[in-house]
Structure formats: C-alpha cells, structure tokens
Design brief:
Elements lengths: L2 H23 L10 H22 L5
Length: 62
Amino acid sequence: MDREFWRAAGIRALRTICQTAVASMGTAALITEVNWVQVLSASALAGVLSLLTSIATGLPEV
C-alpha cells in the first residue's frame, strides 16, 4: 500500500462521510431537530468502515 492507495482511500472515505452526514441530517424534519451527535457518530463510523473495506478489498482505481 503506497501513497497513491492511501490518497484514494482517504478521498473515498471522505466522500462516504459526507454522504452519510447528508443522509442522517435528511431524516429530521427541521434543522433544529438534527441530532448532531448521532450524525457525527454515524459519519465517523462510515469513514472507518470505508477505510477498512479499501484495505480488505483494494481499490480498483489504484
């Protein structure tokens, strides 16, 4: 796993984090009803899982 791999895996994980955050926020009717701790927790977990998946299966673009 070289520098190119980690860069691609990091970009993929960041995209996953953002997608999860947007999806989690979308479940609230109003912005004031968003449970920010839950959004951050789910997003961080999704990012970790994305990195682990990249390590386990590799990245087709690298």
